[in-house]
Amino acid sequence: MKSISKVFLYAEYQLSVPFDQLDWKPINEDMKKNPGLKSKTWLSGLNTNSLGGFYEFDSIDNAQKYVENLLIPFAKESKGSLTVRLFDGEITKEANLGMDSPFYATGK
């Protein structure tokens, strides 16, 4: 498998939890303990209160471990349905630089 140094992960739990009722501070602390996690942007579904996020990892292996060790167990515990997608952040670099993406250094 090709080694990728910029991996994006999208995850969404199909369960209704208003974000202002979520105790996200301890969750953030637990997430920060995972190797290779560079950033996370929390997402809360409009009119659905579904919970999700957009993550950046340093490798496919670390992203996959995160899914297996944190996301899947939470989905089982919460009885929610989980959607996960992994994306190659290197193949789209040039296009993202053209859009001034905050996930790519532009040297400005």
Describe this structure in words.
It is a single chain. With 108 residues, this protein is an alpha+beta fold. It has a single domain (7-97), classed as Alpha-Beta Plaits, CATH 3.30.70.100. 31% of the residues lie in helices and 29% in strands. It has a four-stranded antiparallel beta sheet with strand order 2-3-1-4, with helices on one face. The longest helix has 19 residues, at 60-78. 7% of the residues are buried.
List keywords for this structure.
single chain, alpha+beta, globular, Alpha-Beta Plaits, 108 residues, 3 helices, four-stranded antiparallel beta sheet
Task: Explain the layout of strands and helices.
Elements: E1 7-14, H1 24-32, E2 37-44, E3 51-57, H2 60-78, E4 81-88, H3 93-97
Antiparallel strand pairs: 1-3, 1-4, 2-3
Task: Please give a quick description of this structure.
With 108 residues, the protein is α+β, with helices and mostly antiparallel strands. The protein is built from 3 helices and 4 strands. The model has no long low-confidence stretch (mean pLDDT 91).
CATH class, please? Alpha Beta
Which stretches are poorly predicted, pLDDT < 50 over at least 5 residues?
Answer: none
Structural class: alpha+beta
Architecture (CATH level 2) name: 2-Layer Sandwich
Helix count from the secondary structure assignment: 3
Main sheet overview? 4 strands, antiparallel
Share in β-strands: 25-35%
Alpha carbon gap, first and last residue = 33 Å
- Fraction of residues in H or I helices: 25-40%
Rg of Cα set = 15 Å
SSE order = EHEEHEH
How many separate domains? 1
pLDDT averaged over residues:
91
- Net shape: globular
